[in-house]
Design a protein that fits this description.
This protein is mostly beta strands. Helices cover 12% and strands 39% of the residues.
Length: 429
């Protein structure tokens, strides 16, 4: 059981083996080449005589600016004529000379405890607005409002869903116990979700972001629980004797993959969350673990040591046929990209290597190493647009911390600075 637990929970330990797969590192990132030139002049107060509105406008500007920079879609232009709250057409020629294709004009007002924001995204080329929107939200949700503006701009100019509204769940031990935490995608607004005073592990978001499945030892056994994020209500989900560990939710949220050790070895099961029925997907004498659905729900990627070393496998959910993708010294924690082409995982190319983050394509013909020898790197999880990965790393030499990098391994940066070690992140949709 100890060996299986180490494998399933990815708490170090690896079996040596020969590595037969060619590994290469892709160099390069999603820099400014081809970035969209967007002018973002200072946001303004609706009433210039109200300092609090000016402060609100400045705070919103900083958050939206950071969101848009993080997205890596834009070349932000900030040196040009200021928006005065009137028609943006008046300043469009000067911004056009400066290279801008669009201008983001934002005006902030406050009415009692409500923030009222008017946004105009102006197309310099056509001389007309792409959209004009009005947002009204309680002032306690200022950052939520700013993230909504950012994602609306991303959607309007790229046709793609932004990630500014998303959050990351993870486990941290700053209290002396391993508890579940939640943080905005950019490292802001950290809050503790559980106070189990035990060992909590491996959070997994439901597709609608309202629930988190996680494992806890709070009752002595590694049981599986479901947390309602808004209400803070925790309910038991699976309490069989032995391992009860969440894998991924199905795309529609009605089913949950799990690792259970109901027999002699951990295997993969599927729980119907509507009627509570459970079906067994694998029946191995080794350990099968860490299952994750493909974006279309037709396949499952998972880790298995059925061939001697833990490797990444794929199962077809219709035929139950299984095929192996990797041939490294050690692999675990697969995470399927939202676009379906790649599976990220933690592994070792050679037995003596530290853990690194890799990608494998769904054919198993391509392996890409995204990190290389900077501490131990584990637990990758994709952003919902498939352009970024959050992962844990010991590269700073002070325990495991959360980092984010572009999907090609470039531009790694630490997500947040809080006490203790942080592990097993999961990025919401």
């Amino acid at each position: 059981m100890r060996r299986a637990l180490a494998l399933v929970l990815a708490l170090c330990a690896a079996a040596p083996a020969l590595a037969g797969t060619e590994v290469y590192i892709k160099v390069g990132g999603q820099g400014a080449t081809g970035a969209l030139p967007l002018a973002v002049p200072p946001f303004i107060a609706a009433d210039a005589t109200k300092p609090q509105e000016a402060l609100l406008a400045a705070r919103l500007h900083d958050i939206v600016r950071d969101d848009l920079l993080f997205s890596r879609y834009f070349n932000l232009l900030e040196n040009g004529p200021h928006y005065d709250g009137a028609n943006l057409a008046a300043i469009a020629p000067d911004w056009k000379t400066g290279g801008a294709n669009w201008i983001l004009g934002v005006k902030a007002a406050q009415d009692a405890s409500l923030d009222e924001i008017t946004v105009d995204l102006f197309d310099v080329g056509t001389g007309s607005s792409l959209f004009e929107r009005y947002y009204k939200l309680d002032d306690h949700y200022e950052r939520t409002l700013a993230h909504t503006i950012s994602d609306d701009v991303v959607r309007a100019l790229t046709g793609k869903k932004g990630v500014a509204h998303t959050r990351i769940a993870f486990v941290n031990d700053q209290t002396g116990d391993k508890e579940l935490y939640l943080v905005d995608y950019d490292g802001a607004r950290v809050r503790q979700l559980t106070r189990d005073r035990s060992i909590d592990l491996l959070p997994r978001f439901s597709p609608d972001r309202t629930r988190i499945a996680y494992t806890s030892y709070k009752d002595g056994n590694p049981d599986l629980f479901l947390l309602d994020v808004a209400k803070g209500v925790i309910s038991p989900l699976s309490t069989y004797q032995g391992l009860n560990i969440a894998g991924g939710f199905s795309p529609n949220g009605s089913e949950l993959l799990m690792t259970l050790s109901r027999g002699k070895s951990p295997n993969i099961y599927l729980k119907n969350l509507l009627d509570g029925t459970i079906s067994q997907l694998t029946q191995q004498h080794g350990a099968d673990s860490s299952p994750t659905f493909s974006p279309d729900g037709q396949q499952v990627a998972f880790t298995s040591d059925r061939a001697g070393n833990p490797e990444i496998y794929i199962m077809n959910m219709t035929t139950r046929r299984v095929r192996r993708l990797t041939n490294l010294a050690w692999c675990d924690s697969p995470s399927w990209s939202p676009t379906g082409e790649w599976i990220a995982f933690a592994g070792r190319a050679n037995p003596q290597d530290p853990l690194d983050i890799f990608l494998v394509d769904v054919t198993g013909n391509q392996i890409r190493r995204l990190t290389n020898g900077e501490g131990a790197n584990e637990n990758p999880s994709w952003s919902p647009d498939g352009r970024f990965l959050v992962f844990t790393s010991t590269r700073d030499g002070a325990g495991s911390k959360l980092f984010v990098m572009d999907a090609d391994g470039s531009a790694p940066r630490r997500l947040l600075h809080i006490p203790g070690s942080s592990i097993t992140p999961a990025w919401s949709d």
